[in-house]
């Protein structure tokens, strides 16, 4: 029963075909008749904007579905057209029961024949862009990395039209940390993930020399090899520069620029070619959410993510601190008990982590949320988790860990946008979709970020930064049709169509590795 | 008994006039005679490079002085010329006794009549530079802040010769944190400290709009007022721009550039004037230490810091994680029990903080340190703490807290260079001295950083980055004479002499606020 494709503003939004409730897109008066595709219903009582209305009779104890997911159970019999909220819906066993891998969805109907024009790398992976990375291994070499990368303006790259740019990757750590500890290992995984990213045609590592995060250890531990570019080095050796070896700032900048000049022809020597859509690695993110996020952009991204998975591709959900409250649904959807256990282990880690600082994870609907129509913690968390669509949870990744399976997976990251996306991109995501209600102007090189507005007024006000207006769902476009549009845009962008944030040159400052632990 | 000023390489270095040991500058053979100013002594046994030799008889139980500080007590009688190490020196009561404010040094002999040519600000404070700051309140506006600041190249500033530059201050936080929590408060203190810094003639705050670290709260809580510049705003109002209000990236960049264009004539309208040396706020830091740090550059900086304090100025020691082990000496030097208690409280906080991650603070001399001549934890920690000279500890500051007293004080920061210096500069330091053995190429706008090499080979290899060669101490310049040279350089740089890192354009990437707590 998908929502209508007509252009008349709908009274309710049916978020997923499996749902037995819809969300009021405007306040329905008691006795008001509202249209659904294939029929109509009458509101038994008033149902305010954002609140749920039953589409069918739901016997007591039976599940209530929203986003194609169980958000709780009827606490008494619910009639079609009745308002669904705290008085007749409760969390039930979702409170307690992980029910690991008990409701693993079947694989989606395959989507075949879809391709994008990408770069086939030497290791077989598919790139959507072709950048050169100048990676600063410690903050002490960050300025040098910037100067090296920025020495190449557009005129200097004019002879190399297949190179999208030279990007400095700088960060705030690399020393003042325990050697070999978690922070060190995480940072190395991030930096190696950028060096090896399929959107990186060649890279240069620049360090100071005396830092804890030694370049030699990074190269050895992460088995870094220069796959493309690097003519001046023995085949396969990474390009590294130490400022203390070179004799300081100016000499290292000079040497770095010379290395890149040698690298340019080789990195430029690539051509886009048709690649199956199954090689999309999609990162999904929301930032600056609003009351529309959970009923327009996020479920539409979920519909797009389901399509990526249906092609055989990968879709990554992150933001563990916002998954909290919906983990009981994801454990049910896991492909195995061990995948479910990995998620539970991460949720428990987060409880301990925030507890160390005297805080706690709490996604419970606030009085304002309840006023707005959100009944249960599962429903509230699903507003963000809806980006993961409805397919099975196939794996749970560490921060910046490269996927080794195909399908929908969780990566453990904070909800904080730049840290979350940096993790997914470092793990190999080659396209990002980013939903925003308030209007975030995010980008994250070397991956393109497609920004999806949740509402039309913000889309219009910030159209320079927004790629897609999911607010059209409130004017009658179905969630599924918007998902299709986003999926098409993912393939177009993967093929080289520039996103708004790429046109604006955003995406260097937003490289923010998540680093947990004491800075010493 | 200061070391000789002659150019002949000395056999031993007498670090401080009060010391009853010297450090071997080369290995002394058994029976070798070595010169001291005003006499000579004979080594009773072999004393290797870096090890200590007694200059006088030290009865059992009496203190051993190095850096003008007690590093332990003789565990048996020590003769002049005898090797002093674990066999005859132990930590004694320094293990246990804080002896708060028991040995407060008397005020140093005042130094009068010294001045620098600085900028007198409307609030009375003294600037050493005249920058404009574009402060990004959240990572989501960092790219915009960079684009606004970098729109002004040298040619565009040619008509405003009194402006040193326009600096973007960007960071990795500002959202994904608890509102009003420690991380939020600390970040606000840092950003307000930059906005109000005496080296900042005018500033612009740029945020996204929906971030936890709201601009309105920052402005209100920190009582930000635009002191200089800001013609387009009501008098006293800070200049703020929200990307969501402006309509996105491009419009905010345009608006930001326009605001700065209006600000330029007013910020340029300043002149340097003689200002008493007592208005120096000196930040001291070491990074990339080596075996020479504790015997050349750090004690020489201590001698310079003592001079700053003797003029009535402020000298800040930070790096709490490296103070650990010397805190018993600083508590003795405190001006009051309550100042000593503030330091102890911070040390205890650090133990708990690193303990949360299963680590511990441990500055105990390693077998390699002992091999190199370091006997006690107090002595090892003093190698870094020597930068604080020998005056009384007058206060202990929170991270980025502005000093409210004059004299030598500790600010609680990590040892990690960019985080440590960012705290001191945000607290109002107007000159930084930075010692390095391995060769750090640090800078931290808006304050100039004077980099001091610990040894001549590194100085020569990295002379593009190093301002002063304290390795000359190993060729016969006394620690005190080197301290005088550094003090002179502090006043010259405060008067506008550019440092090496300023010439190289270093100091934007190194703005690294220390943020403790969970990223959500
Ligand atoms: Ca987010
Ligand atoms: Ca299509
Ligand atoms: Ca940065
Ligand atoms: Ca340091
Ligand atoms: Ca002098």
TrEMBL record, chains A, B:
Transmembrane residues, as ranges? Answer: none
Matching InterPro entries: GD_AH_C, GD_AH_second, SAF, SAF_UxaA/GarD, UxaA_altronate/galactarate_dh
Which top EC class applies here? lyase
Q: Which UniProt keywords apply?
A: Lyase
Q: Which Enzyme Commission numbers does its entry carry?
A: 4.2.1.42
Q: Offer an example of a GO molecular function term for this protein.
A: galactarate dehydratase activity
Gene Ontology terms: biological process? D-galacturonate catabolic process
The SAF domain covers 19-90
Q: Give the top-rank taxon of the lineage listed in the UniProt record for this protein.
A: Bacteria
Q: Does the keyword Lyase apply?
A: yes
Homology family: Belongs to the UxaA family.
The name of this protein is: D-galactarate dehydratase
Q: Which organism is it from?
A: Blastopirellula retiformator
What gene is it encoded by? garD
